[in-house]
Design brief:
alpha+beta; 25 strands
């Protein structure tokens, strides 16, 4: 009897114990739900408060539309949907007009999600850890107006910008930051003309770490001195919709003062034959690939806060650069000349200074398809080693008449050693520059691919040595060329059929040209380099055409000008 009673008592105790556990769990669930609910309400109020403060700070230039953020304590995630930052400048009259040359931004973010947030660590140490941030189908838009009476090329006054966040945070660690199907539209207003450029991009930031330091207003300012992150698989469709940029890895380290990129590619989105036809006018198709780019001694904080880029050295290793131009497509009707490098450098709106660029193991090839030729003319340089010094628009250095200096070595057609030297004074008002170089021994028949569009075929000849030097500006070039060669013999090809030789014309052509230089005991014939720039052609075109005039003058096909 007692045994039966004890069993009943034990059973009732277990029942009460389970009931107590269930009751506690129920209360705990209700408390968690209430906390979850209260946190969402608190976050919504805090979010609204900071948005109102932002709108007041910008004096009615912006207004924000959004849905209240949603917090999920169980999964450690925060979701923001349909967030829009709208500029009143373009829709209504703001209370305060924007400053001159100030950028105006608009944002449209359908989805922003933060996953794997470490709430406990944040509460105790104010260190925020996030596993993943996803920004999907975001649209960024930037409006900028350019003044016509302000010279921004030599501007030195840069206003430092503070980057603030609304919560007190000592550090932020994000394992992955993913941008999916996003775009950036840059709209530039010049007088009454508006130009828009759209960039589509996808990439993810990994291994990022952001440290913060509190200020006197109890906000947090990002500590740019500790910024450290990597970007993986950066893909951008450039605005003209003709090229895509792909960077396999981009790293930024403020503590190490370095920025590096692995496998950088600029990829055409159309084949050679279709490229200019898609544009509707003639333009060179470019393809670029570099295995490694490395900026050393970079002040990362100044880039973000002051728009100042300063680096002691840039190393570029293993690049491959191809150009293709189809002359069967008509030129674009324009009278605006292409700008020279020094002119583009002076017009930059941000400060830049790179003391030295080292290029190693490079390869450049240029192909040009003529109207009647079956094969394109082709020239290439391999084993390129270059040093480029003084890329800057620093006003203090420009006052000292500093020049960009380019010198190095390359192999022409993979055979002959070529040593170019180029000097470009940055502040010269006529955009003067000076170029010279030397070429070692090569069989002239190796250069036949250069003349596929000119109906000329070189039968034989040896170029023993070539030296040239010239000066030029935006209007013309002038210089000299010394070519030591012997046994030169050419054939002229039919203009209708470049595979057929013109026997009679070739005979008279070989009578006209000088087969040897020097000839017997006569002094060396010095070729004259002189060419008037064809607007709107580039600096490279001017140098190449000048070089050709020197060759023609040296072999007797062109009278020498004094």
């Amino acid at each position: 009897m007692c045994r039966t009673t004890n069993i009943r008592i034990t059973h009732s105790k277990k029942k009460r114990r389970w009931g107590c556990i269930i009751w506690c769990l129920g209360v705990l669930s209700i408390v968690i739900i209430l906390i979850h609910f209260m946190i969402n309400i608190y976050l919504g109020i805090l979010f609204k408060k900071h948005i109102e403060r932002f709108e007041q700070k910008h004096a009615g230039l912006y207004h924000i539309e959004y849905k209240a953020p949603h917090v999920n304590l169980f999964t450690g995630s925060v979701t923001v949907k349909q967030f829009r930052l709208i500029s009143n400048v373009f829709y209504e009259e703001p209370r305060v007009k924007p400053e001159k040359d100030r950028n105006i931004w608009e944002l449209d973010i359908p989805l922003l999600k933060l996953k794997g947030i470490g709430w406990v660590r944040y509460l105790f140490s104010q260190c925020l850890k996030i596993d993943k941030i996803v920004l999907k189908k975001a649209r960024f838009k930037c409006f900028s107006s350019v003044g016509t009476d302000q010279d921004t090329s030599l501007a030195m006054g840069y206003k430092k910008k503070d980057i603030s966040i609304p919560f007190r945070i000592e550090s932020i660690t994000v394992k992955s930051f993913s941008f999916q199907q996003c775009s950036l539209e840059m709209v530039q207003q010049k007088k009454t003309i508006s130009q828009a450029r759209i960039f589509d991009f996808d990439f993810s930031i990994v291994e990022s770490n952001i440290l913060c330091k509190p200020n006197e207003h109890s906000h947090s300012i990002l500590d740019l001195k500790t910024l450290d992150f990597k970007i993986k698989d950066l893909k951008i469709n450039l605005p003209d919709r003709m090229y895509s940029l792909h960077i396999q890895e981009l790293g930024v380290s403020a503590p190490l003062s370095k920025i590096w990129m692995k496998t950088v590619e600029i990829i055409p989105r159309h084949k050679k034959f279709d490229f200019s036809r898609k544009l509707g006018y003639r333009k060179s198709r470019m393809c670029f690939n570099a295995k490694w780019l490395h900026f050393n001694s970079v002040q990362v904080g100044d880039i973000i806060s002051m728009a100042r880029f300063r680096s002691e050295t840039l190393s570029i290793r293993g690049f491959h650069w191809e150009f293709y131009r189809d002359k069967r497509i008509p030129l674009r009707i324009t009278h605006r000349p292409k700008q020279f490098p020094q002119e583009l450098l002076r017009q930059l709106k941000f400060y830049i200074r790179v003391d030295l660029v080292r290029v190693s193991n490079g390869y450049i090839v240029y192909e040009e398809q003529g109207e009647m030729a079956k094969k394109p003319a082709r020239i290439f340089f391999s084993d390129i080693q270059l040093n480029i010094a003084n890329i800057t628009n620093d006003p203090l250095l420009l006052k000292d008449n500093i020049s960009i200096k380019i010198q190095g070595t390359a192999k022409l057609m993979g055979k002959s050693l070529f040593k170019p030297v180029l000097t470009i004074p940055i502040r010269d008002r006529h955009d003067r520059f000076y170029f010279s170089g030397s070429l070692q021994s090569i069989e002239v028949s190796e250069l036949n691919p250069l003349f596929n569009n000119d109906a000329i075929h070189i039968e034989s000849g040896t170029l023993n040595k070539l030296i040239f030097s010239a000066s030029a500006n935006r209007y013309r070039s002038r210089g000299w060329l010394k070519a030591h060669y012997n046994g030169l013999k050419i054939s002229l090809l039919s203009k209708r059929n470049y595979t057929k030789k013109e026997t009679i014309a070739s005979f008279f052509a070989n009578l006209i040209i000088l087969s040897n230089n020097p000839r017997g005991r006569k002094p060396l014939r010095i070729g004259n380099m002189y060419f008037r720039r064809e607007v709107p052609k580039s600096m490279l075109n001017l140098m190449w055409k000048s070089f050709l005039t020197g060759i023609k003058s040296s072999i007797g096909l062109k009278k020498r000008k004094k």
